[in-house]
Design goal:
Four copies of one chain form a homotetramer.
Chain A (H helix, E strand, L loop, with lengths): L1 E4 L5 H13 L3 E6 L4 E6 L7 H4 L5 E5 L19 E3 L2 E3 L5 E5 L6 H14 L3 E3 L17 H14 L2 E5 L3 H10 L2 E4 L7 H9 L4 E4 L6 H13 L5 E5 L17 H8 L4 E3 L1 H5 L5 H11 L3 E5 L17 H13 L3
Parallel strand pairs in A: 7-8, 7-14, 8-9, 9-10, 10-11, 11-12, 12-13
Antiparallel strand pairs in A: 1-3, 1-4, 2-3, 5-6
InterPro entries (chains A, B, C, D): Aldolase_TIM, Class-I_DAHP_synthase, DAHP1/KDSA, DAHP_snth_FXD, DAHP_syn_2
Organism (chains A, B, C, D): Natranaerovirga pectinivora
Keywords (chains A, B, C, D): Transferase
Amino acid sequence: MIIILKPKTERKVIDELIVKIKDTGVQVHESKGENYYVLGLVGDTSRLTPEQFEGYDCVERSMRVQHPFKLASKLFHPEDTVINIEGVKIGGGNAAIIAGPCSIESEEQLLTIAKSVKESGANILRGGAYKPRSSPYSFQGMEIEGLKLLKKAKELTGLLTITEAICLDSIEHVAEYTDLIQIGARNMQNFALLKKAGKLNKPVVLKRGLSATMEEWLMAAEYIMSEGNSQVILCERGIRTFETYTRNTLDISAVPMIKEISHLPIIVDPSHAAGKWSMVEPLSKAAMAVGADGIMVEVHHQPENALSDGAQSLKPEKFKKLMENLAKMGL
Amino acid sequence: MIIILKPKTERKVIDELIVKIKDTGVQVHESKGENYYVLGLVGDTSRLTPEQFEGYDCVERSMRVQHPFKLASKLFHPEDTVINIEGVKIGGGNAAIIAGPCSIESEEQLLTIAKSVKESGANILRGGAYKPRSSPYSFQGMEIEGLKLLKKAKELTGLLTITEAICLDSIEHVAEYTDLIQIGARNMQNFALLKKAGKLNKPVVLKRGLSATMEEWLMAAEYIMSEGNSQVILCERGIRTFETYTRNTLDISAVPMIKEISHLPIIVDPSHAAGKWSMVEPLSKAAMAVGADGIMVEVHHQPENALSDGAQSLKPEKFKKLMENLAKMGL
Amino acid sequence: MIIILKPKTERKVIDELIVKIKDTGVQVHESKGENYYVLGLVGDTSRLTPEQFEGYDCVERSMRVQHPFKLASKLFHPEDTVINIEGVKIGGGNAAIIAGPCSIESEEQLLTIAKSVKESGANILRGGAYKPRSSPYSFQGMEIEGLKLLKKAKELTGLLTITEAICLDSIEHVAEYTDLIQIGARNMQNFALLKKAGKLNKPVVLKRGLSATMEEWLMAAEYIMSEGNSQVILCERGIRTFETYTRNTLDISAVPMIKEISHLPIIVDPSHAAGKWSMVEPLSKAAMAVGADGIMVEVHHQPENALSDGAQSLKPEKFKKLMENLAKMGL
Amino acid sequence: MIIILKPKTERKVIDELIVKIKDTGVQVHESKGENYYVLGLVGDTSRLTPEQFEGYDCVERSMRVQHPFKLASKLFHPEDTVINIEGVKIGGGNAAIIAGPCSIESEEQLLTIAKSVKESGANILRGGAYKPRSSPYSFQGMEIEGLKLLKKAKELTGLLTITEAICLDSIEHVAEYTDLIQIGARNMQNFALLKKAGKLNKPVVLKRGLSATMEEWLMAAEYIMSEGNSQVILCERGIRTFETYTRNTLDISAVPMIKEISHLPIIVDPSHAAGKWSMVEPLSKAAMAVGADGIMVEVHHQPENALSDGAQSLKPEKFKKLMENLAKMGL
C-alpha cells in the first residue's frame, strides 16, 4: 500500500504516523518526491484498507499496490481452477452450458424445457424457485415445490441443476436439492449469505453485482472461499450504465481481465445482460470467443406466457441453433 | 402502460395480443401512428411489468405511464408522512439529526461521542454493531455487545438510537435494542430482509443502493410498506459513477425529485457520499438547503484510530461547528 | 411521441395544448387511463423533442415512440449499407481490418508497421497525425507531415488509409490525403465538425462518445448524413463506467443492437476499449464473433517507445497471430 | 508517479527500465515490497502519463501521485482566483448570478427577459446564439443576429453577457460581442477550441463534460490557461449516470472538491442538471449553500413556447422568488 502525505507535513507528524503503521505489523519505506512525501507499506496489507489511513489529517490519499484478495488471486494460485461435479468439469477449457427457464412454473414446463436443452447439448439445468423481484406485486417463485421439480428433472435427464438462493432460510434447501447454488447480482454483497455459502460443500455460481467492480466481485468470492468453500464460479451478467437501449451492459472485457488476475472459472449470462432474446445468440458467441468457461442462457418454450423475463428467453429451437452455431466456430 | 408494436404487425396478431392483455384484467386503447401501432393499457397495471410483454415477437418496446409503486406514491397519499418516535418528529419540516461513529468500538468510545453529539444538537445516535465490510479480513462489528451499548447510551443521553441490520438473524435483535432500523445500501434489494423489516413495528431508514434508480429505491420501500410497516425514511448516500475523486456521487437532486413523487421523509448521509470529512460540512449545508428532512453524519473523537471509515468522520468540535452554521442559515 | 398529462388536468388546458401540438403539423390521439391522460402524436415527429412539451405545467412526462433518426434508421432503409472504397468493401458481411500505430512518429516507424500489418492481412492503415490529448503537455502529433507519410505508406503497400480529423481547420487536409476520415470519441458531438464531414465525399468512421447513448451516436451519424454524406461507419470503442480495472468498458452489445435498428456498418476498436494489449486478441475475437463489420487495432513495433498509448498496442507478431486465430474460427 | 512492476521481474529488465525513465529527466526511487517491486518517479512528471509506462511488458500498473494539472492547481497558486469584469467580481466569495433564456429567439424575447432578471438581481445575461443540438432537425440558433441582440440587451440593462461558442469559426464573433465566452459540455475536450479560447482575452466559463472526471475538467482548463488566458470559471452542470428520473445528476460534491484542489471559481447550472424547472430553486439553494461562486439559471417568460429546453426554464416571477429566498438564507 502507498500513502501520499500532504505537502509540507512536519517531520514529527510523519514519524508519529510511521509508528502507528508499524503497529499494524507492516514495514514502511519512505520516498520523498518534489512536492509529495510517499510511504510504501511492505508486508501483509490485506487486512488494511486505504481508507483507514485517510483519517489522518496529514494524509492526502492512499492506494493499494497489491490486490486485496488472496484466495481468489492468480498470484498465489497460478493454475486455473477446474470444478468437477459428477464428471462435468467447469474451467480450464471445460465449458458449462447452463440453460433453462427464468422461473420454474410447473412440472410440465420444467420437464419440457429440460428435455429439450439436454438434447441440444446443455449440461446443467437452471430454473428459479425463489425469485428476487424488484416489485412486491410480482410472482415470487414456487419455492420448495420448485426445488423438488428440479430434482425430478435431474432424475429424468441426467442434467446437473442450479437455482438461486436468496436468503439464509432458503440456502440450505437449495443445497439439499440442487448441484450448484447461485448467488444473484442483488445479493453479491449480502455478506451473511456469502459466509453461509462458504460453509456448504456445493459449488457456487456468484453473479456480479449490478454496479460491482471486479475487485468487489473477487472480494465477494473471497468471502465464500475464506469460509472453506473454494468451488466458486464467477458469472458476468451485465453492469449498470447510462445506456438504455439494452437492459444492462455486458462487460465482455471482464472475462479476459478476471483470467489475468484470478484462477476462478468465469461464465457469461447473455440473457440478463441484454434483456432481449434476439441478442442472446450473438452475445453467446462473443462470450465463448472471448474465452469464457461457459454460458447461462434462459430458454422457455412459451416465452410470451413466461411469468418472468419472457423477453429475454430463447425458444428451444433457437437454443438448438445457437449450440450448432457455436460448434461450427469451434467454440 | 404503453406497448409499441413492430411496424407491419398483422391485425390477427394484434388481436391475439389484445385478448391476452385483457386476460390480466386491464382495458386496452388502440392508437395507430404513422409507422407504429400503440396499445395503451388502462386499469391497475402495478402487477404487470413492461418486460413481460416484450416476450411477444410483435412487441418492439413497452413502457410504464404510471409509477409502479403505490403505497410510497404521492399520487395516492398527497400529504407528507411525519414519523413520530417518542416525540422526535421526522418529515414535514421536522429534521432528524443523526450522528455517531461508523462502528461501535467500546463503551468509552460510544458514550463519549454520544454525549458530545447530544450537546451539539443531534436527536438520534448512530453506531454500527454489525458491519457489512467488503473484505472478509476487516473488522466485522461488536454485534450484540454493540447493541447493548447503544441502549446504555440512550439511557444516559436520551438520544434515540439507530443501527444497521444486515441479515434475517440480526434484524430482530436490532429491533429489540434500538429505536430505528437501518437497511444499508448493499441490502437495498435483499428482499427477504425488506419483508422482515415490514413485519416489525419500528421505523426503518432505507439507504439507497449504490446503483439503484429512484424507482427501484421506492419499490424497495414498497416492499417494506406492503408488509404493513409504513414508517419508512429514505436516505440518499451517494451513487456509483465514473468519478473517482469522491468515493460516491451524492445525488442531491434525489431529494426534490423524491419529494415530488413520494410522501416519505428523505434524509442525506454526506459522510458516505464523499468519503472525506472535509466535505461533510458543505454537503450537509447543501442537503438541508435542498430540503432534506435531516442528515446522518459520522462523528468520531479519534478518527485516525477508527476501526472503519475514519477518513469520513468529523471530530466532535467540527460537528458542533456544523450545527452552529446550519442554525445561522436558518436550516 | 407520447405525452402524459398530470392527474386532474382540466379539459380546457388539455384542449389548449392540443391546439399547440396540432400547430406543429402532427395529429393527436387522446387516451384516458385510470389516473393519467395520455396524448399520442401521429405524423413526422422527428423535428419535435419530448423536452419541448415538458415546458407546459400540465405535462408530467413525454417520450418518443419512434427513434429520432431517419437516414440512419433501418425502418426506412432495410438493407445493410455496404461501403466500397477502391474495391475494399465494408458492411454486409465484408470486414474492415484497420491496423497501425496510435500516433505517426516517423517515416521509418509508419512504413515498418504498414508493411507488417499488410502482410498479416489488414486492408486499411491507421495512424494519428492530429492527436486529441487530454493534457496540453503531451505530444500533439506530426500534423501535415504525418498525413504525407500516410500517403507514402499507401503508395508503398496499397493499403487504404485513415486518420482522425480534430477540427474544422484540419479536416480538409485529412480528406485530401487519406481515404477515410475518423471522427474521434471526444468530437462525436462536435456538430460543426460533423456537418463539415457531411459535406465531404469521403467515408467517415464515427467513434462513439465516451458516454454517448446509441441514440445520440446515431443522431451524430444523422448529422453527417443529413448534409449529403451517407458513407458512415460506426465504431464502438468502449464507454465510461465505474469499472477501473479496464480503461473503458467495451459495449459489445452495441453491435447486435445497432444492427437491429440501423443499416450502417459497425466496427469495434478493442485497443482503446481495454487500454491493455493483452486483452486485444480476446476482444477482437469477441467483436468478430458478435457480428462486427471489422476491427481497428493499434499495432506498434516498439510499444515501449510509443509516444502515445503504448500500453494498448500489439506488436506486429502478435497482430499476425491474432489474424491467424480469427481465420481459424472462420471469423 | 508510481510504477508497479510485475512479480518476479528480472533485475536486468528493471535496470533497463530505470535507464529509460531517467532519460525523461526524472529521478527514480526504488522500493521492494513482499510481492511487488515499486518505482517512484521524482521531478516534473506533468509531461509523463501513467499509460506510457504500461507499454513495457514488466509493468503491471502505473499511477500518479501528483495531479497532472499545474496552472489550475491550488498547490502552486493557493489563493482563490477572483475574476473582475467591469466591476463584477466572480470567485473568492463573490457570486455570479447568470440568468436568461436557453436560446435567443427574438429581440422582444431577449429584452423582456433581460430587464426582468436584472430587476431580480442577476448580474450577467445568458442567451444561446449558436445551439449545439443533438438532432440536426432542431433549431440551431440565431447566430450573429443573436450576438447583436445580446449587445443591445447589455446597452439597455447594464448586464454583462455570455453566450456559447461552438466552433473555431464562431468563437471570435462571440468574443467580439459578449463579455464572457461559454464552452459547452459537449466541447469540453474540443482541444482546438480550448486552445483558441486560451488566446482570447475574455473570461471563459468552462462547462464540465457529461462524463468528464474532475481531473479531465481541470486538464481542459489547463489547456486554456497554458495558452495565456487564466480567466477560467468552471461550471458544474450535471453528469451522466444510470438515473433517468432526472436528465443529469448534479454532482454537488464537485464544488467543495474542486475548491480543495484548484483556485479557480466554480459555479453551478441547476437548469441543465435537473432538466425540470421545479427543481431549479432547491438545487440553486444547494449550490449556494455548498459554496459555489454563482449559479447559471435558464429563465423564459413563455417556457411552453421556448424553442429549446422550455421544461427547465423558470418563469421570471419564479426566478425573482428564488433570488429572494437565497437572500433570506444569507446566500
